[in-house]
From TrEMBL:
Residues 105-540 form the Proline dehydrogenase domain. It comes from Galleria mellonella. Its cofactor is FAD. It catalyses: L-proline + a quinone = (S)-1-pyrroline-5-carboxylate + a quinol + H(+). One of its GO terms (molecular function) is FAD binding. GO terms for biological process: L-proline catabolic process to L-glutamate. GO terms for cellular component: mitochondrion. It comes from the Eukaryota. This is Proline dehydrogenase.
Amino acid sequence: MALLRRLAVNAPRNVRVLSSAPSPRDDLDLNFNSPKDAFKSKKTSELVRAYFVYQICSVNWIVENNAMLMRRLRQVVGQRLFEIIMKATFYGQFVAGEDQNTIRPTIDRLHSFGVKSILDYSVEEDISQEEAEKREVSASISESGDKQEEGQLKQYHVEQRFADRRYKVTSARTYFYLNEASCEKNMEAFLKSIDAVAGVTKSTGLMAVKLTALGRPQLLLQLSEVIMKARNYMQQIGGGTGNVLTHHKTIEDFQRYFGSHSNKPEVQEFMKKITSDKEGIVHLFPWSNILDKDMGLSDSFRVPDPKTGQMRRLISQISPKEEEMFRNMLRRLNHIIQAANEVDVRIMIDAEQTYFQPAISRICLEMMRRYNKDKFLVFNTYQTYLKNTYNEIVTDLEQAQRQNFYWGAKLVRGAYIEQERARAAAMGYEDPTCENIEATTTSFHKCLKEILSRAEQKGRLGIMVASHNEDTVRYAIQLMKEHNIKPDDKVVCFGQLLGMCDHITFPLGQAGYSAYKYVPYGPVLEVLPYLSRRANENRGFLVKIKKEKSLLLKEIARRIFTGQIFYKPNGKYTPV
């Protein structure tokens, strides 16, 4: 049934269907300089459109005022003609279509040239900064208020100046909590996307999910603060820094540390609930029970005071109504993953801001533990512009090995770096980001090297290299060769955005590597915020666009001079 296993579907269950003729495989030019290989999936009219769009994206004034210009154009020509113009230009370049039916030709053509799809329903609310801030502040504070408490970590509390999470973010969609009904609506949209993925990607597709779409941000903030306080607590007990698991402490170590306090019933009860194995403590708290059962959050996150043995809460008070909201968020995520599993679709949980990310990663890892026992189903995302990403990856890989589940991840540079730096400076906590682009690239490559050095876990470890950087793609291929990882081992795949970096994606797919396009879709007017961001992001990639524009011109010229101006793409490739 499915051609993509292990990384995208997993091998053991199904028999691979062999085509009557072997799929062609091209030689890969690692310099990515072949216009013919890059654009053999495109009509000449599509090459002209791409060049035109990239040219416009190179004009700063147009990009900076793109939202206003689109609004004015719509007012002048009317909605119908506006949609026709957009489909012939920006929308046609970066968006696959309006719905499951209209995106099928794009998905099928990608597939026929060796490229698979990650579908993303890119409809967004177009709300004002004032409305965004109002919603975010309201949804980030508990009913009992945001009281100053001892040991409070200010990073994990809302700040009015940065409540509009779209601030300085060009490449990530943002959800703002309105109410529980809006989260249900978002869940239904994700479920429809799963149906679309299943219907058009031939069991090779993935779907992206953002956890902030499914619940109240206050809960992610509080859970993230708990996780970081637990790390500080372990540092107090055992010294060192990092995740609880990295300390490799045992229950016996705790008993010795607490001394006579270990005999207190509440301390014994706490130690009884610690998640551990023969190698030591994995988690201070029984996360599987917290996420699976109706355990009260306020009562679950309590630790013994090392001096008095008295139990103290690591989480600020959560009301019964907010507890129910937390259960609703988990129910929605479970529903999405279960629905995806039934139709052979993989779920990729996106990374978000650092003040949400500890909670998002913890929930994601627990979903992996639950659903990735026999195959890849849930993937996490790691942003390598963060200084601590390498340590997080090492810890998560160890947890996957010790708890015996498939570890799947998308590795990206990240979307929130300017916002993170500004917020840290304004609120007075340590900047969590790498100091410059070079440091971020070093971090990306270090993480990639660590992951692929564990090639002995082949089959239980999968990584998507989501990068538009040619050097990073070349480095990944070099590491694959060093560790004897073949393209069809389905350990490594590559991903780029639809309408961008075709000179990387298509040569990879046509050479037999596992390659993906991140494919947005949705009605024209409702994806305008996405298109606005794409224009801004392209401006940030002027050097890359310069090369891509050059390749486009060379291919257009080649077709004109060889009489192939009416070339019709007809792919015979089969994706890995």
